[in-house]
Amino acid sequence: MSATKISELEELRNRFTGKAKMAAKKKVIIEFKDKSAFSFDMLYQLSCMSVIAAAGVPRKLIFEYASKLPCSAASYFKRIDMTCERLKYDYAKGCRLVGENTKEEKMRELLLRFSSSLLSGEPEAEFLVREAKAQAEDFENEYTRKIEALKLWTDAYVSLIISSVLVIIMGIVSTMIWSVSAGFLIGLVVISAGTTAMGVYLIYTMSPREKVVLAKPGSTEQKQAAKLFKYMLPAGAVLISVLILIKLNMGWSFILIALIMLPIGWIMNKDDAKVTKRDYEIGTLLGSLGAIAGAIGTTVREALARIDMDAINVLRPEVKRLYVRLKSGIQPKLCWNKFVEETGSELANRCIGMFYDSIDLGGDAEQVGFHTSLFATRIAMLRAKRKAVTMSFRWLSLAMHTAVVALLVFVAEVITVFGNMVSQAEAAMPKVSGAAGIGAFTSFNMENLGMLHNMVIPLTIIFTIANALAPTIADGGSWYKIFFTMGILSAISGLCLIFLPEVASMLFKTVQV
Hints:
Number of strands: 0
Radius of gyration: 31 Å
Helix content: over 70%
Number of domains: 3
Order of helices and strands: HHHHHHHHHHHHHHHHHHH
Number of helices: 19
Shape: elongated
Structural class: mainly alpha
């Protein structure tokens, strides 16, 4: 054995021992903190590999292609490919070596099964098709379970928020009954904030993880929202700071926040509806392209010319532009990449990559179109189930937030106004030696009224942020969508802070002190 070979073996051995092993473990952990949608990535990985393997390409090309896919699972196949290329191992041994040192349970089991299949002489296409079907069923079952759990936890979230407000109102009313310390009131605020944060975390834990839009803004709406975010938020932060410095009613700051956020949220809400419809159509489009190309034995470009454009609804403008670019002689890869960018959909990105690359490597167009369409349709249908749950939860959160903030602001203001009136009445009474004051009969805690009034603002901010985060997390997709819900909730909070104190004051105007 040559010295170079020995050194490479030593390098591989040291890779998973001592400090190198700890570094490898840390690397894996960091990867999966950033890649929470691993089940979705694994389904995409196996679907692409099964389609490529069905084209009859060499084993080495399958692993090279798998290592370059835009998903978290590709990093394992990249390690396998590098191990086999540098150390001249066969792919069965490479799968076993990487699988044994993999922290992710599902991937470890897959790689070990793949290693056994390769050793037994089973064709890669048969194994990958079988694993892709199994992963598709597993992903669908897991996704459905999360949706069912999400239904229950959205109801639980509403209960937690209402409980938090009841705890605060109980503390507010307690100031009329006995002397309440400042620490007790602060403790109630902390408990309320912690309960609300727990509710948001539960929604985050139960929500399915998946990438819906492109990482970089692609569609027209996504680019518009990114520009507005870049310029409007800094300007808004300056204006809000000015309002706080001049000590204007905080309600106007909430109104200003709503005016800044609503345009961004409105654009992204509109984009989300379009992306959802595009995801429904992308599977049908690619299935039709594959069927036409396979039936008449032509290229995808010619098949695109034979598609009835009137039968395409949402994707019609993008498809027409794609055909014009292909017909103009522009490089096909660039044309398809631009098509993906215009859709703004991560599902379209992955399906187009699977479809184009598989045909480019010699796959049967009809089979590739069928499997790609099946993958896209399955994901789109699962997302439709999720939307049915999350849309109702969003509007429920808006209604609940209105009731919660209105009740909190109104009760706190009534107690504050009443307490001030009691203080004024006591101050106006003649001082009689030995006689008890009004406070002795009412047990009203006058000292903490100022703190009680100041607690309303931070609690309103907490509930506004939490009630905007929860529906957005549950719905998934672009984080820019939070601005739509946050804008509406900020407007509601601002109106409550501006008008409800006036309403509370009007209740006591006829009372003579």
